[in-house]
């Protein structure tokens, strides 16, 4: 459990620029390595461990960033517990993700995405094929309500790799880059969008 501090920072008043999906592997800071919690292979839930890592361990290596000490980088977090996936609420939706903001500042992602909602999945899609159940749970429990709340469409949902800038790979693969980078090779975004379309096409397939 982490301490909730007083924090007056707020998101800009306009609606989020979209929803970004990313696996947890990319949140690992090279100066604060972790093991055994990236993927869902453990018997115990990893959500609490990730919170402690992101709010305590990373803040130690980023001592000049007060915002990181009091805020999680993701707005939602999904992991496998027993036989199914669960989704937790992380950062307040009205606050910017410090991770996306940092990536935009370093020109790794386009500036408009610093205001997006970040959904993190406790897995490594560079190595693991994505079960359909992940897509289905994300759509039903997380994305569909967000699309309705913020008047977003399928076209406003992205996975992290597709919002990288042209120079991003040169930066993230540099030894000086603070975070690990692992491509979401097995995240089938075409199938993911088909599931959204099949379940909610009459509401969200076209723009408002």
Q: What are the main properties of this structure?
A:
Lysozyme-like; globular; 6 helices; alpha/beta; 208 residues; 33% helix
Secondary structure layout plus pairing:
Blueprint: E1 19-23, H1 47-61, H2 66-70, E2 76-81, E3 84-89, H3 98-105, E4 117-121, H4 132-150, E5 157-159, H5 168-172, H6 189-204
Parallel strand pairs: 1-4, 1-5, 2-4
Antiparallel strand pairs: 2-3
Helix pairs in contact: 4-6
Commentary on this structure:
The structure is a single chain. The protein is of the alpha/beta class and 208 residues long. The chain has six helices and five strands, in the order βααββαβαβαα. It has helices at residues 47-61, 66-70, 98-105, 132-150, 168-172, 189-204; strands at residues 19-23, 76-81, 84-89, 117-121, 157-159. It has a five-stranded mixed sheet, covered by helices on one side. Helix 4 packs parallel to helix 6. The longest helix is centred in the last third of the chain and has 19 residues, at 132-150. It is globular and about 45 Å long. The N and C termini lie far apart (40 Å).
Q: Give the overall average pLDDT.
A: 82
Class by SSE composition: alpha/beta
Using only C-alpha atoms, the radius of gyration works out to 16 Å
* CATH architecture tag: 3-Layer(aba) Sandwich
Name of the level-1 CATH class: Alpha Beta
Largest sheet: 5 strands, mixed
The name CATH uses for the topology is Lysozyme-like
Q: How much beta, percentage-wise?
A: 5-15%
CATH superfamily: Peptidoglycan recognition protein-like
């Amino acid at each position: 459990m982490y301490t909730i501090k007083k924090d007056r920072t707020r998101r800009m008043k306009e609606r989020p620029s979209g929803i970004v999906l990313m696996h947890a592997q990319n949140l690992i800071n090279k100066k604060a390595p972790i093991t055994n919690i990236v993927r869902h292979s453990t018997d115990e839930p990893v959500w609490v461990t990730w919170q402690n890592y992101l709010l305590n361990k990373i803040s130690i290596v980023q001592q000049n960033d007060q915002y990181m000490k009091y805020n999680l980088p993701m707005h939602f977090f999904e992991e496998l517990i027993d036989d199914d996936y669960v989704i937790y609420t992380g950062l307040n939706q009205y606050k910017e993700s410090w991770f996306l903001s940092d990536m935009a500042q370093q020109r790794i992602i386009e500036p408009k995405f610093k205001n997006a909602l970040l959904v993190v999945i406790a897995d490594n899609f560079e190595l693991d094929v994505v079960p359909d159940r992940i897509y289905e749970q994300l759509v039903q429990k997380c994305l569909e309500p967000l699309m309705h709340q913020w008047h977003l469409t399928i076209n406003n949902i992205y996975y992290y790799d597709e919002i990288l800038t042209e120079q991003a790979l040169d930066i993230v693969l540099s030894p000086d880059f603070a975070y690990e980078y692992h491509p979401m090779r097995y995240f089938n975004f075409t199938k993911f969008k088909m599931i959204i379309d099949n379940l909610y096409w009459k509401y969200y397939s076209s723009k408002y």
